[in-house]
Amino acid sequence: MNRRDWMKTLGTACALNGLEFPPSAHGGTGALSGTSSSSATTLETEIVRLKLRHTWTTTMSSSEYRDTLHVRFVRDGVIGHGEGAPIVRYKENAEGAQRAIQSVRDWVTGADPWQFEKLLTEVFHRVPGQYAAKAALDIALMDWVGQKLGVPLYRYFGLDPNDAPITTFSIGIDAPEITRQKVREAEPFPVLKVKVGLDTDETTIAAVRSVTNRPLRVDANEGWKDKEEAVRKINWLATQGVECVEQPLPADRLEETRWVRERVHLPLIADEACMHASDIPRLAGVYDGVNIKLDKSGGILEAFKMIQIARALGLKTMLGCMVSSSVSVTAAAHLSPLVDYADLDGNLLIANDPFSGVQVKNGKLLLPDRPGLGLKQ
Ligand code: MG
User: Fold this and answer.
1) What is the per-residue pLDDT across 121-148, written as a single tens digit (0 to 9) for each?
2) From ligand 1's centre to the CA of 279, what distance in Å?
3) What DSSP line would sit under 150-161, residue for residue?
4) Which is nearest to 245 in space by CA: 268, 213, 272?
5) How deeply is 148 buried, as exposed, middle or buried, from its count of CB atoms within 10 A (0-12, 13-18, 19+)?
6) Residue 262, Cβ neighbours under 10 Å: how many?
7) What is the number of other CB atoms lying within 10 angstroms of the CB of residue 116?
8) Domain 40-150, classified CATH 3.30.390.10, yes or no
9) If you measure from the C-alpha of residue 341 to the centroid of ligand 1, how many angstroms do you get, rounded to a whole number?
10) Residue 59: predicted pLDDT
C-alpha cells in the first residue's frame, strides 16, 4: 500500500492493524529494565524507538525517530501499559525517564495500587521533574485499575464516548511541495494543524491553501520572537481560514502575549506556557485556552484536574500529545469527551506502533470500549 492509500485507510477505518508488533520484537532499543519486587507485583520499563514516517520538523527540532518510555505494571496477572514521551524542551530524555521509574520501583511495587491517587502523589513528591516518566507510570496504573474494574477509562471518568471530538492532523514544517503532498494525503481529516513560527509562514500557508479550503489551526511553538510580528501574522492568518493560534510567543512572555491578544481576533492557546494545573490560573486573561498533554502534566489524573480547572476559569481546552505510540494517545483520548479541541495524532505519525487503541474515522476519535485503555497488541 502506498502512503496515500495508507492515509485514506487511516481516515476510513483508521488503522494500523497491519503494523502491530509487540514492543519486545519491534522498536525497542534493547534498553529493557528488569522486573523487581519480591511480591507478585512487577514494574518493567523499556525504551521504545518509534520510527517517524516523515522527518518531523517544528521550530524546536527535526528528527527521524523518537524514543519513548514504556512501563508495564503487572499484578494479579493483569498488565497495565503506560508510556511517556520525554520532552527535550524540558530537558527530559528517555534514559532519564527510565532511571526515574527505577528509582521508585521498589516503593511502587510495594504500595497498594488501589490507592493510586496517594501512590502517584508520593511519586510526584519523590521524583523531581521527569513528567514523561510520571505519565508512563500513571497511565500504566490507570490501565491496570480500569482492567481490574472491567470498565473502559472513559467510563471510569463518567464520560460519553460519543462526545469525543475530531482530532486535527498535524503538518510539520517543510518545503512547499512536501507540504502540499502531506496536505493531500491528510484528506480524511476535516481540520489540519499547521506548524508555523519561521520566516516561511506565508509560503507554508500558501502551499496549504493551494490544496485545501479546510479549516486550519496553527501552532507557532514560541517561534515569533516579537509581539508586533505576532500581531501582524495572526491578523493575516485570520484572513486565511485559521481557527486558533497556539503558543505565538515564548512561554515566559505573558505580558506581551496579553498585548497581542488585545489586538487580534483569533483565540490564543497556551501550550509550552501550560505544563501543570498550577500554571493555569495565571494564564486566564492572557490566553483563550490551554493545550494539555499527559507527557507535560505527568499523566491522566493531573490532566483531568487541569481540564476541570481550565473550564472553571472559562478557558477553552485542548488535549494534545507528543510523537508517541497508541498507548499514550489512547490514554489522552479517554479524556477527550471533556475538551473543545483534540490534537491526538502522535501515533499516526509513526511506522512501528506496538499497539492499537483509539481509532480515527473521518477525523473523529473512536474510543475503545474494552476495559482500561482497551489496547490490543
Ligand atoms: Mg503546540
Assistant:
1) 999 999 999 999 999 999 999 999 999 9
2) 16
3) TSBHHHHTT--G
4) 268
5) middle
6) 8
7) 19
8) yes
9) 12
10) 66
CA 351 from centroid of its chain's CA atoms: 17
Q: Which of 307, 304, 312, 341 shows the shortest CA–CA distance to 219? A: 341
Cα-to-centroid distance, 47 and ligand 1 (Å): 24
User: pLDDT (tens digit, 9 = 90+) per residue, 322-350?
Assistant: 999 999 999 999 999 999 999 999 999 99
User: If you measure from the C-alpha of residue 61 to the centroid of ligand 1, how many angstroms do you get, rounded to a whole number?
Assistant: 13
**Domains in the chain: boundaries:** 40-150, 155-366
* Look-up of cell digits 521550530: 59
Does domain 155-366 fall into CATH 3.20.20.120?
A: yes
Ligand 1 midpoint to CA 172 (Å): 11
Going from the Cα of 195 to the center of ligand 1, the distance in angstroms, rounded, reads 8
Q: Which three cell numbers stand for residue 273?
A: 506556557
Tell me how far the alpha carbon of residue 266 lies from the centroid of ligand 1, in angstroms. 16
| Amino acid occupying residue 199 | D
Cβ atoms of 71 and 42 within 8 Å: the answer is: no
Cell readout for 309 is 480547572
Q: 30: left (phi > 0), else alpha (psi -120 to 50), else beta?
A: left
pLDDT per residue as tens digits for the range 288-320: 999 999 999 999 999 999 999 999 999 999 999
Q: Please report which helix (H) or strand (E) contains residue 99, including its range.
A: helix 94-110
Q: What sign does the CA torsion over 342, 191, 63, 374 have?
A: positive
How far does residue 275's CA lie from ligand 1's centre (Å)? 11
Distance 272 CA to ligand 1 centre (A): 7
Distance of CA 24 from the midpoint of ligand 1 (Å): 31
Q: Separation of 33 CA from ligand 1 center, angstroms?
A: 31
CB 361 within 8 A of CB 13: yes
Query: Rounded CA gap, 159 and 138, in Å?
Result: 19
- Report the half-sphere exposure of 18 (CA within 13 A, side-chain side): 6
Q: Cα separations (Å) of 350 from 19, 56, 76, 178, 305?
A: 10, 10, 32, 17, 29
Going from the Cα of 86 to the center of ligand 1, the distance in angstroms, rounded, reads 15
